[in-house]
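Hi R.,

Here's the chain you asked about this morning:
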Amino acid sequence: MYHESANIEIIRNTRESIKRSFDLVESASDEVLRIFSSINAFRRQVRIGVLHLFKESEHGVKIRVLIPADYQQITQIINEVNLVLPELSIRSVDMSLQNTIGILVVDRRQSLIIG
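And the predicted structure, written out as C-alpha cells:
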C-alpha cells in the first residue's frame, strides 16, 4: 500500500490559518470532520462564518462536528444550528476532553491541527 509523504507546515499567522481551514472545507468532495477544542471555540467559528461555509459545502459532502459540551449545551447548539443547516451532524464528547487543540480533517486526506 502506497502512502504519500507527509507535508507538515506551521502557520503562525491566525488569519492565514483561518483562511487555510476555510479553503480546506471548500475543497472537500466527500467528508469534513471537525473537532472543536471547546464550546466557545465553536461559537467563535460560527461568528466568523463557518456555518455559511458548511452550508455552501453541503452538496453531497458529509459534515460531522464534535464539541466538548454537556447535554444541555449540545441540545441548545443543535436546535440553533438545525434552523440554519439541518444536515450538519453535531455530537458532543465528554467535557473532560476539552482542550486547546481543534482538528479539521477533509476527505481523510488532509488535516489541520489548530492550537
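The first helix runs from residue 14 to 27.

Let me know if you need anything else.
M.
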